[in-house]
Amino acid sequence: MIVYLHIMASLRTEVLSIYRTILRTARTWKSLSGSQQETQEEMKYIREEAGALFRKNKHLTDEEQIRQCIREAETRIELAHHYGIPYPRPVNLPPMGLGGPQRKGKKLQERLRHQAKPVYLHSHEEIEK
């Protein structure tokens, strides 16, 4: 029981640290275009997206799910800094990811699409639904 509480406290510290990093990133964000309006829109997007995802996941208790969310947040932060855009990057479908008119192999197509989905998009599509 003590080990579990220690792990959860450690995860909580890590989650709060990531949240602070995201808010700091939003505060210092500069749009690639240099436009003040776009910069403000992107800063707002970062804050709102972070708030929505953290609120959605605040009741998670499974250690592995929490670690997956942490990995996703870290990946999205790295991608935002690297590419200079706060929005998730689009994903290309794998070969045979779309079905033909026969609809044969639908399970295979769904599995291929699921396997091709990058870690930084898991929460993004759940929020949109």
From TrEMBL:
It comes from the Eukaryota. Residues 90-129 are annotated as: Disordered. GO terms for cellular component: mitochondrion. Residues 14-78 form the Complex 1 LYR protein domain. PANTHER family: LYR MOTIF-CONTAINING PROTEIN 1 (PTHR14273). Belongs to the complex I LYR family. This is LYRM1 protein. It comes from Branchiostoma lanceolatum. The gene is LYRM1.
